Amino acid sequence: MRLFKTLVLVALCACVVACGNRQKKAAEPVEETADMSQYMPDLESGKPAPSLELNTPDGVLVSLADYAGKWVVLDFWASWCPDCRAEFEAVKNLYETFSPKGVEFIGVSFDHDAEAWKNCLDEQGFTWPQVSNLIRKKDNPVSTAYGINWIPTMVLISPDGTVAGAALTAEGMNSILADKI
Q1: Alpha helices in 28-113 (DSSP H)
Q2: In terms of domains, do 15 and 71 share one?
Q3: Residue 63's pLDDT is what?
Q4: Averaged over 18-40, what is the pLDDT?
Q5: Which SS3 state, helix, strand or coil, does residue 53 take?
Q6: Whether residues 23 and 48 fall in one domain
Q7: Are residue 13 and residue 82 in the same domain, yes or no?
Q8: Total count of domains within the chain
Q9: pLDDT digit string (tens) for 71-121?
Q10: Which of 17, 24, 58, 176 has a Cα at 20 to 30 A from 133?
Q11: In this structure, are residues 81 and 96 in contact, taking their beta carbons and an 8 Å threshold?
Q12: Mean pLDDT for all residues in the chain
């Protein structure tokens, strides 16, 4: 019995030391070295934007063709995506900055759970159109057409209906819009 207690005590000490080392490592700043450019959409600037017709949560059909002659930001996201959620406030700020300058925004969700999507929309209070076909990103014809490799992703459509740029963050889209608008 004494040997058993000793072994348990040794194992417990080893766990405490290991946990302490893990906490120290987690507290150290991590240098970002990932090259996110590999996740940029497979879209060529200057080429016609793929057509887009999807419904709002209320069943209203929104078509990219309805926005001809305008700058349009397509914001691809999903409620289950932590990176998307982290960008929500920045996207709202982007909208507040560029909407008064005539830029239209359309949120395109890759949610496949209608209730989760609608709950997220209610929680966030987005004021621009939000659409989805409720098909997972990997199986979604929209993600295929727009070459979406990562979310969040934003694509800028020019007034002539061509792709004018893409970004993985609101900050990146801000730079593109500031240069073009």
Answers
A1: 82-98
A2: no
A3: 98
A4: 51
A5: strand
A6: no
A7: no
A8: 2
A9: 999 999 999 999 999 999 999 999 999 999 999 999 999 999 999 999 999
A10: 176
A11: no
A12: 85
